[in-house]
Amino acid sequence: MIYFFYGDEEFNISQEIKGFRDKLDKNFIEMSYKTYKNPKFPDLIAILKSQPMMFGKMLIVVDCLNYFCGKKKDEGNFDFDDKQLAELSQTLEDCNENLDVIFVAYVSPDDQKKKKIDKRRKIFKLLSKYNSKEFLQLPSYKTDEYETWIKKQAGTKDLKLSNEVASEILLQVGINLRTLDSELEKLKVYAGDKPVTCDMVKEICTTGEDLFSFTNALIVGDTQKALAEYQKILAKKHPLEILASLHTILRQNIQIKAYNGKYSQYEIAQMIKINPKRIPYILQEIKNVPLKNLVRLKKNLTDAEYKIKTGQSAMEPEREVEYAILR
């Protein structure tokens, strides 16, 4: 079967793929599960002609965002011609019945100004004929929908939550679905078979206040306070989780700083998908901070994250983040 998942909500896309992967024979997972990133046309055709072995179903995930973005092939982007599309269409039709192929076009919030899925492209129309699904982030102001999602996700973990507790989790953690899921996992371990309470959430979950206090100290250059706040959060979160949250906050601050004066506060809020009421407070916090400082800080943290994830860091993850803070 052929599937096409696209949009800007990475967590939901990954969960959908996980559902397929969990059905594979775990004894042969290395042979039955393959991922590729923007393969060139000849390679893509070869991939689609893969033959599952004797262990049953095979799953192939093709990250294909570049198929829908950009104009020049020499920039790593793609624009298949009619002959190639005809061959691709026939190859898709001829795929082995035991082969599942998922085409994925995920646009991260960091890339949305540089990349955008062009739904007018013929390849988009071709893939949309199959099992296609768009995954979009919920607007930040739709708190009821986020709370509903929290309760539903908690249910998949056999975690008992009241409406009040779901609201408290959203208030404490924020709207990033992957972070919310991670906090629910921690609550499951902590609560066991007991219902989760608001006090548990306050004790276990990293609060937005903690993160904003940490980020604000970083932004204004108060290194001593930033390190102190970092140590508090480390007691509850892995360094990579902290970095993920920091990237979100810094990205918003950079965008707000860059757009201020060019657009209204309401327009800025719509573009970066946050509550308009937060804009004045953020502007006040960063008014004396040069834009280049925010960009440099985000680059330092991005470098730290890359070293941690690729195993290139000579330090423990928590120390690598500390070094990025001190730079």
Task: Summarize the structure in words.
The protein is α/β, with parallel strands linked by helices. It has three domains: 134 residues, 3-Layer(aba) Sandwich (Rossmann fold); 62 residues, Helicase, Ruva Protein, domain 3, CATH 1.10.8.60; 119 residues, Up-down Bundle (Zinc Finger, Delta Prime, domain 3). It is globular, with a radius of gyration of 22 Å. Helix 11 runs antiparallel to helix 16 and helix 15 runs antiparallel to helix 16. The model has no long low-confidence stretch (mean pLDDT 85). The longest helix has 21 residues. The N and C termini lie far apart (50 Å). Strands 2-3-4-1-5 form a five-stranded parallel sheet. The protein is built from 16 helices and five strands.
- Please trace the helix and strand order, writing H or E for each element: EHHEHEHEHEHHHHHHHHHHH
pLDDT < 50 stretches: none
Helix share of residues?
55-70%
Largest sheet: 5 strands, parallel
Between the first and last Cα atoms, what is the distance in angstroms? 50 Å
Which properties best describe this structure?
single chain, 327 residues, alpha/beta, Rossmann fold, Helicase, Ruva Protein, domain 3, Zinc Finger, Delta Prime, domain 3, 3 domains, 16 helices
